[in-house]
Amino acid sequence: MFQRIGVQLSTAVSVIVVFAAILGGYLILSSTDSQLDILKKQGQWTSIIGAKSVSTILGEIIDAGGLSRDDLFDSQFIPVENTSPQQYRTKYDDYVSKVLAPFEAEYLQHKDIVYARVIDLNGYVPVRSGSAEAEMIDDSQSSGIERFGKQILMDDRTTRVSLNKEKGFAQNYIDAKNRTIWEFASPIFVKEERWGSFCVGFKDFPERGNNSLFSPKQFLLGSIIIVLTVAAIFFIILKIIAPLSELLKMANDVADGKLDRPVKMENMSEIGKLADVIERLRVSTKMAIDRLAKNG
What total number of domains does the chain contain? Predict the structure, then answer.
């Protein structure tokens, strides 16, 4: 009986362990959606905070007299000679670049961010920095920094960013290095007037390192662990209830009138206490039988 109970108990616990393992595996395997959600939230908040910071910085530039409001919204782009791709100058680009280049560079300290930049409503990128690393195509004639800063970007993706009115706008694309980049953008307002957007590019989560969920070796190891866990549960539980089997035999002897064998167990748990109860019952029963025998 107790062996069967032990098997049932072991089986029940083992089912729980296996279920937990399966559930854990499922959660891990389905965690790509969770990782993507986390990435999106991180990127959206980063762009929102960045845009708000740039709005404050540009507003303070005007308040401090560094640039006039008209200068900051200058849209007369003057071509810079002998530049390819074509670069442009404005009334504000030098001043803004000096202020915002260190600001953008701080974002690149984050290992998952590949660029951060400001873009005005015309698609113009005033800051000459290394912040557009994700866009760069290998070119032996010029560096990424030289090729990117001061340009007007007319591609559809950049246009969506520069004209975007949504906080935390998200889109993804494949860059020149064949990486999936998630781009997040939020609008920049200066003195309540729309100036442009702040955007930040994040590596897609598989690009962040070796995030493979289960290799064959890991799966095999996990399977072995589960099997050993189940075996250990069976062994431990059967060992724990083994005294119950012995106690059952002793109790049967008492019930059958075999009262000469003391019911004694070293077990200090409830099993030992139950053995003491049966022993007292054996002794009292034997004494009663002995008295009856004498009186008879």
Answer: 2
- What is the separation of C-alpha 70 from the centre of its chain, rounded to a whole number of angstroms? 45
- Print pLDDT tens along the chain (296 aa): 444 555 555 555 655 555 555 555 555 555 555 677 888 888 899 999 989 899 999 988 888 888 999 999 999 999 999 988 889 999 999 888 888 888 888 888 888 888 899 999 999 999 865 544 434 433 333 333 334 678 998 888 888 888 888 999 999 998 888 888 999 999 999 999 999 999 999 988 655 554 444 555 555 666 666 666 666 666 766 676 677 777 777 778 777 777 777 777 666 566 677 777 777 777 787 777 777 777 76
> What is the helix, strand, coil percentage profile of the chain, to 5?
55, 15, 30
Last residue of a domain, one of 208, 243, 272: 208
Find the domain containing 245 and state its range. 214-295
47 shares its domain with 145 = yes
Query: Is 154 in the same domain as 222?
Result: no
State the Cα–Cα distance between residues 257 and 267, nearest whole angstrom. 24
Looking at the domain assignment, is residue 156 inside a domain?
yes
Phi-psi region of 62 (alpha: psi -120 to 50; beta: other; left: phi over 0): alpha
Domain annotation covers residue 223: yes
Rounded to whole angstroms, the maximal C-alpha distance in the chain is 132
Mapped onto helix, strand or coil, the DSSP state of residue 83 is coil
35 belongs to a structural domain: no
- Domain CATH number, residue 282: 1.10.8.500
Separation of alpha carbons 86 and 137, rounded Å: 16
| Residue type present at position 271 | I
